[in-house]
Amino acid sequence: MNRMSEARIWHGGDLDEARRLFPQAPEPWIDLSTGINPIAYPVPPLPASLFARLPSPADHRDLEAAAAEAYGAESTATVVAAPGTQVLISLLPHLRAPSRVAILGPTYAEHAHSWRKAGHDVAEIPSLNRLDHADVLVVVNPNNPDGRLLKREALLHLAKNFRLRGGWLVVDEAFADFDAGESLMPVLPSNAIILRSFGKTYGLAGLRIGFAVAPEPITIKLRSALGPWAVSGPAIEAGRKALRDRQWLDSAREARTADARRLDALLMHVAEAPLQGTILYRLLESPRAGELFRALGDRGIWVRRFQDRPHLLRFGLPCTDAEWKRLEAVLDSFS
Questions:
Q1: Which phi and psi (to 5°) does residue 193 adopt?
Q2: Final residue belonging to a domain, choices 183, 210, 245
């Protein structure tokens, strides 16, 4: 096995690691290392019966129907609900014979890891000019962590080219909910697979809900691979309520957009290049990123660092006024 596939992949949200690195830091920690909405959807009280029985197939289908409505999918039959997008990322490589896979990077590392682990020949490419003879192309759109966004027309052109060679286009739209203008969802090509994350937008990552939207031959394989009761009853109930609450989504989009602008205003004083990212996270580039990471950690603020790009730090959005003030104090003292 490729040694890279065996290496531990860093992710956000690991406060155990934060406490190990900075044992003297004040509590409570402020976790800005994820791209999760810090203001979660207000889940209503759930009936106790949801925890005591298996979810019904009808409830599972209704969750998929709610996702189809929310995302603008062509039909419920094209939507597969899973216990988190990560499960889908791990499953997809097993639905295809060993292939040549191109991943537009740098991006979310679990894509390359999952395809390699399943025996595929994986190349991480810096641009679409280097597709060579790939059978599968994986694109994160908008990209994590820099927010790079490919236009829908470009994605449709790519899908057509891969269809002619019997290939797939996999588009991870985990951060597209707040800005879906370039989503492939309304015009799903016959060889495209779109991934959507629920937990990031709705601030409910612990529920573990994710969706694949794909042509029926692929969704049939995914449903078989996932097996029955893939999503828990409480998650189904909370998920379908949230997905149908368009007023909350619109309000959250407006509020988080303002938060992203506020964060940019704080970070621009320590950044050495234009800030990048999406509404839910901002990417800072600086030769002093390591110093800033340590200064923040010493003050109990955990941000996302990168194994192979030490000049970058990714910042999620603070939640409360107190968190904003703590972050501002560190940045002011650093600059």
A1: -125, 120
A2: 245
